């Protein structure tokens, strides 16, 4: 079987060779992944992205070779009678060429279709997003796996449905590949993500605002920074919705997302931590109330940066929560991975974990030496008799550090505030601080019974609990002056343990 003369050039031959080798490799990789039923993030990258790029380069080289050969032939005045080949299906040679050409084209077209489909799925997969640039995504990927959304794909929240967002995300992905390749990305990655798709089109595909959520019991176990690591429990009944589902979203915390309610706010900084202006519109009656914080003075509001409150203004860390050392050490003490029998362990852990370390390795070493030295100098008998317990505590603290703090990306708990609550970040108290006042004299309330009822609190052995229809006045552990009544909790708690 002979091809037209212009096909006999080095470029065409090399193109054909590259294309066939990549094609065979792709088929081989696909068969391999079917047969062994495995596939790492890298095999997907090779099969559906890198090899196809070579296949396409090979396929492009074939016509490039043909064209350059024809041009050269023409220059050299190689005489050809006709400019185009004459197609004559009565000639067996030409029929055969057409036959093979047909088969190869069909296989390539089907292969491309299948390949693009797989490439689409692969670039939408959690491995692609979370593991490929492992170093950059490690903090988000690790916390994601411990979150209630560990089986919800990254793209469900970060991209959502529809072609336009797919294209947008791939374009921004391209920019990210460039910044990773040339090490241009900021550490930590800045948040909030200002071009994140609105919660209406992501979260609300699975959770919708009209759904009634009942009151929810939150049980927090604290361990005080004293010698005995005294356990101090707090039981809160969160007023997510009204007491009975017949009342819908008429009151409670999820009132903000009721279809009749629109709460808008303006933040004077890009992190949305300072909120000097809030507007509530009752969509049923059209009544509008504007609350401003007089302490901020006169501000000029840019209408473009007014944000309508949605799920993400409270649940901003649904999938990547970075708890503070206070939180994760309390959790480990309550769960028993940290031995609460070791005296001073809570306060010692706070000192060690609230220090900044340049790398994970140096942190792990420091945890080990500091804890060891502390017991050696302060509790000699314990150091002699309870070596195993101390070793256990060191291992558990190192494990907790690695799970929650990521020096290589500069990620510590205070870099990513969680807006649910008000203890270490202002969260709800960004608006609910008794300071935002309307022209009619209404304030956005900080009343301790507005959002939750404290139904139990105190030292665990002598815990006092009451009926869920009642509410205990808050008692602060070790606070004789009642300072919490005057100040926001975060004014002390943001760096309570980092001094
Ligand atoms: C349940 C929804 C959800 C899922 C699933 C999810 N994310 Fe996120 N992600 C968010 C939200 C919400 C933010 C913070 C947005 C903000 O405050 O602007 C965020 C922020 C981020 C950030 C910016 C840095 C930061 O921590 O704020 C990165 C990077 C990120 N996500 C990566 C991922 C990766 C990788 C996956 C999958 C392994 C993933 N996300 C899965 C909701 C999600
Ligand atoms: C693809 C579906 C899906 C999407 C999208 C989604 N979630 Fe979820 N969400 C879930 C599932 C599943 C659970 C776990 C339910 C369970 O454990 O009963 C959950 C649980 C939650 C919880 C309860 C957490 C807990 O500790 O029990 C909150 C809060 C939440 N999601 C908020 C969000 C927010 C905010 C977004 C948008 C950024 C979002 N979700 C997007 C499916 C989704
Ligand atoms: C952007 C400002 C803003 C933030 C942040 C905010 N709120 Fe509100 N909240 C409001 C406004 C405005 C009202 C209505 C005040 C009024 O009219 O009395 C309100 C009312 C409420 C109410 C009373 C609803 C009712 O009528 O029963 C509850 C409960 C509530 N908020 C809980 C929370 C919780 C919990 C958080 C934090 C997770 C929070 N809010 C964060 C602005 C905010
Ligand atoms: C004003 C703040 C605020 C807004 C806005 C908000 N939530 Fe919540 N949500 C809360 C609080 C507070 C809780 C109680 C749980 C807690 O304290 O962690 C809660 C609880 C939940 C739960 C768990 C309920 C349960 O019983 O397990 C889900 C799911 C949830 N919210 C989803 C959403 C979704 C989806 C949106 C947006 C449509 C949304 N929330 C908007 C503050 C808010
Ligand atoms: C605008 C709503 C709101 C108001 C007002 C409010 N809280 Fe809270 N509070 C919350 C939320 C949300 C949480 C987080 C619950 C969780 O852990 O999921 C919380 C948590 C707490 C906790 C548990 C903290 C922990 O980590 O164990 C205490 C204690 C508490 N609040 C006391 C108070 C006191 C005292 C006041 C009055 C000065 C008050 N709250 C006012 C919404 C509110
Ligand atoms: C004047 C500073 C100050 C203010 C304001 C304050 N706290 Fe504290 N808080 C402390 C100190 C100091 C401790 C350590 C207690 C000790 O030494 O036993 C503490 C401990 C706690 C603990 C136990 C912490 C742990 O390590 O597990 C809780 C819970 C707590 N405070 C809740 C609150 C709440 C809720 C508010 C706001 C309503 C608040 N605090 C306001 C100073 C403050």
Descriptive report:
The chain is of the alpha+beta class and 499 residues long. It has 4 domains: 5-123; 127-185, no CATH class; 216-318 and 418-493, no CATH class; 325-415, no CATH class. Helices cover 42% and strands 10% of the residues. The chain contains 14 helices and 9 strands. It has helices at 10-36, 41-75, 92-123, 126-131, 134-145, 154-158, 163-181, 203-206, 325-335, 345-353, 360-378, 380-385, 387-404, 489-493, and strands at 216-223, 231-238, 261-266, 277-282, 288-292, 306-308, 437-438, 452-459, 464-465. A 5-stranded antiparallel β-sheet has the order 6-3-4-5-7, with no helix packed on it. A 4-stranded antiparallel β-sheet has the order 1-2-8-9. The longest helix is centred in the first third of the chain and has 35 residues, at 41-75. The model has no long low-confidence stretch (mean pLDDT 90). The protein binds heme C (6 copies). One heme C is lined by residues 239, 251-253, 255-256, 263, 265, 275, 278, 280, 291, 309, 313-314, 420, 427-428, 430-432, 442, 444, 450-451.
In short:
The chain is of the alpha+beta class.
How would you summarize the topology of this molecule?
Elements lengths: L9 H27 L4 H35 L16 H32 L2 H6 L2 H12 L8 H5 L4 H19 L21 H4 L9 E8 L7 E8 L22 E6 L10 E6 L5 E5 L13 E3 L16 H11 L9 H9 L6 H19 L1 H6 L1 H18 L32 E2 L13 E8 L4 E2 L23 H5 L6
Antiparallel strand pairs: 1-2, 2-8, 3-4, 3-6, 4-5, 5-7, 8-9
| Sequence stretches where pLDDT stays below 50 over 5 or more residues | none
Strand content bin: 5-15%
The rounded distance between the terminal residues' Cα atoms is 83 Å
- Helices and strands: which structural class? alpha+beta
The ligands bound in this entry are:
heme C
Enumerate the strands of the largest sheet in spatial order, edge to edge or round the barrel: 6-3-4-5-7
Q: Biggest β-sheet: count, sense, barrel?
A: 5 strands, antiparallel
Rg (C-alpha, Å): 32 Å
Give the overall form. elongated
Q: Percent helix among the residues?
A: 40-55%
In the residues, how many domains can be counted?
4
Mean pLDDT: 90
SSE ordering: HHHHHHHHEEEEEEHHHHHEEEH
Oligomer: single chain
């Amino acid at each position: 079987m002979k091809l037209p003369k212009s096909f006999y050039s080095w470029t065409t031959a090399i193109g054909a060779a590259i294309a066939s080798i990549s094609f065979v490799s792709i088929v081989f990789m696909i068969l391999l992944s079917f047969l062994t039923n495995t596939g790492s993030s890298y095999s997907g990258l090779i099969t559906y992205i890198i090899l196809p790029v070579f296949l396409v380069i090979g396929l492009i080289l074939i016509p490039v070779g043909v064209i350059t050969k024809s041009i050269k032939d023409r220059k050299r005045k190689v005489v050809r009678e006709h400019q185009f080949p004459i197609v004559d299906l009565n000639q067996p040679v030409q029929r055969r060429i057409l036959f093979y050409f047909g088969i190869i084209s069909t296989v390539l077209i089907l292969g491309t279709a299948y390949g693009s489909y797989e490439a689409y799925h692969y670039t939408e997969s959690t491995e692609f997003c979370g593991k490929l640039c492992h170093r950059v995504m490690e903090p988000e990927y690790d916390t994601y796996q411990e979150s209630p959304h560990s089986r919800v794909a990254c793209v469900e929240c970060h991209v959502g449905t529809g072609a336009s967002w797919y294209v947008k995300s791939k374009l921004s992905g391209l920019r990210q590949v460039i910044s990773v390749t040339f090490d241009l990305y900021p550490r930590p990655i800045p948040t909030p993500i200002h071009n994140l798709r609105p919660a209406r089109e992501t979260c609300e595909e699975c959770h919708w605002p009209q759904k009634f959520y009942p009151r929810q019991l939150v049980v927090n176990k604290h361990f005080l920074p004293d010698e005995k690591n005294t356990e101090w429990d707090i039981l809160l009944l969160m007023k997510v919705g009204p007491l009975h589902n017949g009342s819908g979203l008429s009151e409670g915390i999820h009132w903000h997302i009721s279809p009749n309610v629109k709460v808008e706010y303006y933040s004077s900084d890009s992190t949305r931590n300072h909120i000097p202006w809030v507007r509530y519109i009752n969509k049923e009656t059209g009544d509008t109330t504007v609350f401003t914080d007089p302490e901020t003075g006169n501000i000029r509001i840019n209408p473009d940066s007014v944000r309508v409150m949605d799920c993400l203004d409270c649940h901003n860390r649904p999938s990547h929560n970075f708890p503070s050392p206070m939180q994760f050490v309390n959790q480990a003490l309550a769960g028993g991975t940290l031995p609460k029998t070791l005296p001073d362990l809570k306060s010692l852990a706070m000192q060690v974990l609230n220090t900044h370390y340049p790398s994970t390795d140096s942190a792990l070493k420091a945890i080990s030496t500091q804890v060891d030295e502390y017991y050696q100098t302060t509790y000699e008998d314990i150091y002699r008799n309870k070596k195993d317990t101390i070793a256990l505590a060191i291992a558990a603290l190192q494990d907790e550090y690695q799970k929650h703090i990521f020096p290589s990306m500069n990620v510590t708990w205070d870099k990513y505030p969680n807006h649910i609550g008000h203890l270490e970040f202002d969260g709800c108290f960004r608006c609910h601080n008794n300071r935002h006042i309307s022209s009619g004299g209404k304030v956005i309330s900080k009343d301790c019974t507005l959002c939750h009822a404290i139904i139990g609190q105190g030292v665990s052995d002598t815990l006092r609990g009451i009926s869920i229809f009642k509410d205990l006045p808050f008692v602060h552990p070790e606070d004789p002056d009642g300072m919490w009544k005057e100040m926001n909790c975060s004014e002390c708690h943001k760096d309570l343990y980092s001094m």
